[in-house]
């Protein structure tokens, strides 16, 4: 399928992350110019495809002015932005349940990164989005935002709020011909997922501990009918599709890339 995204201009927020890198590569392969934003320095060798269409900048999603500056950079260097993708995700670092094993003080930073960062991006991008029909915003949520995941309640609640906010955006964008959607990954090999495993192991006796691979395989077979890990590239393929004209009737939707872990009627 030809997505016809050549020469379109994309901002990927959280581009140094596992899914962010895959999303960046996917848009580059479609012929887009991509601005990469992350709080960590981005290495050119991580993005060997079409370096002439890459623009790497540093920014912190917790700072609204950094998101404003990223959009301004797109206007200044590319003449504007057609699509913005928010791929940032961060847990509390304290996993397990019941929820009272955590403290209320564990919540604000998780909400700030997962939810408020996306709010900052949406406010910065909205003036661009409503200028021209066909522009899109995509937010990376999680299956945890749909099932009340006990593993990390602050993360689960933040991702649920992200979905709700995306639906608000979609309704506000619609009169202008712009769209907003969310992608909800399931079990993806990532640093975030690895940290869940590490925390789970820390509370076990040595004879009960398992490797990351074994833990992941056991969990994905337990929670997903397909019983398979999802790849970052699977999420990236959906992100490019949602930005394309083939998805022109899709807005306000959550696309689960999870092997059937979450099913809706």
Structure explained in plain terms:
The protein is of the alpha/beta class and 265 residues long. The chain folds into two domains: 9-186 and 232-255, Rossmann fold (3-Layer(aba) Sandwich); 191-229, no CATH class. 42% of the residues lie in helices and 14% in strands. It has eight helices and seven strands, in the order E-H-E-E-H-E-H-E-H-H-E-H-H-H-E. The protein has helices at 18-29, 64-78, 108-129, 144-147, 153-173, 191-202, 212-223, 232-243, and strands at 9-13, 33-38, 54-58, 83-86, 136-140, 179-185, 254-257. A seven-stranded parallel sheet has the order 3-2-1-4-5-6-7, sandwiched between helices. Helix 2 packs parallel to helix 3 (108-129).
Output the keywords.
single chain, 265 residues, alpha/beta, Rossmann fold, 2 domains, seven-stranded parallel beta sheet, 7 strands, 42% helix, 14% strand
Question: In a few lines, what is going on in this structure?
Answer:
With 265 residues, the chain is α/β, with parallel strands linked by helices.
Uncertain segments are: none
Compressed to H and E, one letter per element, the order equals: EHEEHEHEHHEHHHE
- Tell me the number of helical segments per DSSP (H or I, 4 or more residues long): 8
Quantity of strands, as a count? 7
User: Structural class per helix/strand content?
Assistant: alpha/beta
Span from first to last CA? 28 Å
- Give the CATH topology of the largest domain: Rossmann fold
How is the quaternary structure best described?
single chain
Largest sheet: 7 strands, parallel
* Backbone CA Rg: 18 Å
- Overall domain count: 2
